[in-house]
Write a structure and sequence with these properties.
Blueprint (H helix, E strand, L loop, with lengths): L7 H12 L17 H10 L11 E2 L5 E2 L13 E3 L6 E3 L1 E4 L22 H13 L4 E3 L4 H4 L1 H9 L8 E6 L8 H15 L4 E6 L5 H9 L3 H10 L3 E8 L3 H7 L8 E5 L2 H10 L8 H10 L4 E4 L12 H10 L5 H10 L4 E7 L3 H10 L8 H16 L20 H14 L11 H15 L25 H18 L1
Helix pairs in contact: 1-17, 2-12, 3-5, 5-6, 10-15, 12-15, 16-17, 16-18
Length: 491
């Protein structure tokens, strides 16, 4: 749901700081020396993904920058897909309400369980989305520290009910998995969303037979939700998936009459899910898609840009995209790939800022088909991304808060961003090592307080079962902490 890399105000400020660390790179943009130094500097300068999806400048001849073509965001060109189960005409671009804009605070002021959402900014985004044809809005009880449903309800209730389809979830994990806790969650969703029916209601990410049984079967909640659908308070009942491949086949087999299913799907996971999820029993996104098609289940897509990772992929991938089409964002390629699959009815994107929203609406108004050569390019880019060892974090924040205060998502995202931008100082023989080392450490220290960095991890492993991407978070934190320590010793 997400072509946003988190708090982009801070990200852009720190990117500028890192860009200024060694300005002599800019004078050498036309060279193509080892380690990707000058190509990296150039791609970063032109901003392919610097605002997580908006093309700020483009590649011209001789490595020089030029302004992108002026473009108008149409109000009447949105691509729609008919949901074959309900007949609803859904916008292919869905608004994921997981990463909503927050009130700007000084570092350390944003506390768990405190509502710091900027409701005025949320209203502005929703108003613009509806005015430009977006009619799918997806939220859940735990999003935005538990305040997404309320903010979504406030924004959408200002519009006629027939202007939007609202989706939310039964996110009954832990203590809330009891029947009483699940019912409280269900009724609170109606209250916060200010609706008397919910268009699309998910079982939120059952991961295995045992997990499904404990959260939805033994407590009678699935039976309750089926009755609520019969009463009209739920219009469509489905589930979202992160988990075991065998369990996915069981859930999609026809035993349960699902109206829709949501899966993670991107051009990277289409071919390489198994390679990226080492040791996992998950299956390739292509296989999940085919199973749902075979069972006539409409498909919703989440994570088309991997939490922003494909909005700002590795700099060599961005260079290849710019050669194909210099006037579009990196994120748009990911949306076009997902949206061109015919059985997909909507593709969700978390859009924190107006730039994200405008770029995504432009991509879908209307959505252009992918040519065979463009598909081959995305496969080549997938190979580049696979080789660079990025971590599968989508910044969903399900691992937070860490009981020891570690900022897990920001650490993993900073690592990925540094790798993709060429600020990963791996080769000490590289002429660019000192600059990359400084950029990596400065970015880490400015983005994350020393008391919240990876070396604070005590390997309690409480975060592991919460991660829908099956990341061994303590292992990754230890690896990053060791790497950071070695860089600091270099100084």
């Amino acid at each position: 749901m997400e072509n946003n890399m988190g708090n982009n105000i801070e990200n852009n400020m720190e990117t500028n700081i890192e860009d200024n660390i060694d300005n002599n790179i800019k004078a050498n943009m036309n060279n193509d020396k080892p380690c990707g130094m000058n190509r990296r500097g150039f791609i970063k300068l032109v901003g392919a993904g610097a605002v997580a999806g908006t093309a700020l400048a483009t590649l011209g001849s001789c490595g020089k920058t030029r302004a992108p073509q002026a473009r108008v965001i149409p109000t009447d060109k949105m691509t729609y897909r008919v949901d074959p189960k309900s007949g609803n005409n859904l916008s292919l671009l869905g608004f994921g309400m997981m990463r909503l804009p927050r009130v700007v605070r000084r570092r350390g002021e944003s506390l768990p369980n405190v509502n710091d959402l900027d409701q005025e900014a949320v209203n502005e985004l929703v108003d613009y989305a509806i005015a430009h044809g977006v009619n799918v809005f997806d939220t859940a009880p735990p999003y935005c520290k538990g305040f997404s449903e309320k903010a979504t309800g406030e924004a959408l209730s200002r519009h006629p009910r027939n202007k939007y389809f609202i989706a939310t979830k039964m996110s009954n994990r832990g203590a809330s998995a009891s029947r009483a806790g699940s019912l409280r969650m269900y009724h609170k969703s109606f209250e916060d969303l200010k609706v008397d029916y919910i268009d699309y209601y998910f079982l939120h990410s059952p991961t295995s037979h045992r997990n499904f049984r404990e959260r939805y079967i033994d407590n009678g909640i699935l039976d309750f939700l089926v009755k609520e659908k019969e009463a009209g308070r739920i219009r469509n009942l489905g589930w979202s998936f992160h988990g075991d491949g065998n369990f996915f086949e069981y859930m999609s087999s026809g035993k349960y009459p699902w109206d829709f299913t949501m899966i993670a799907l991107s051009y990277l996971d289409w071919w390489h899910m198994g390679a990226r999820w080492a040791g996992s029993t998950n299956m390739e996104a292509q296989r999940k898609y085919d199973i749902l098609v075979q069972n006539n289940i409409p498909i919703w897509i989440m994570s088309p840009v991997l939490g922003g990772g494909l909005a700002m992929p590795h700099f060599r991938a961005r260079e290849q995209m710019a050669q194909e089409d210099p006037n579009v964002s990196s994120a748009s390629w990911a949306f076009r790939f997902a949206g061109n699959l015919p059985n997909v009815v909507t593709v969700l994107s978390g859009m924190t800022f107006m730039d994200h929203l405008k770029d995504n609406i432009y991509t879908h108004s209307p959505l252009a088909p992918l040519s065979d050569s463009e598909k081959r390019m995305l496969e080549e880019i997938s190979q580049i991304m696979l080789e660079k060892r990025t971590i599968n974090c989508t910044k969903c924040q399900y691992c937070m808060p860490c009981p020891y205060g570690i900022d897990i998502p920001e650490i993993l995202i900073h690592y990925n961003r540094s790798l993709n931008e060429g600020n990963y100082p791996e080769d000490r023989q590289c002429p660019d090592f000192r600059r990359a080392r400084r950029a990596f450490l400065v970015g880490m220290d400015r983005r994350i307080s020393p008391l919240r960095q990876a070396n604070r991890c005590i390997n309690c492993k409480l975060c592991i079962p919460t991660c829908p991407q099956r990341i061994n978070i303590p292992q990754e934190l230890r690896r990053i902490a060791k790497f950071v320590e070695s860089l600091r010793v270099e100084g």
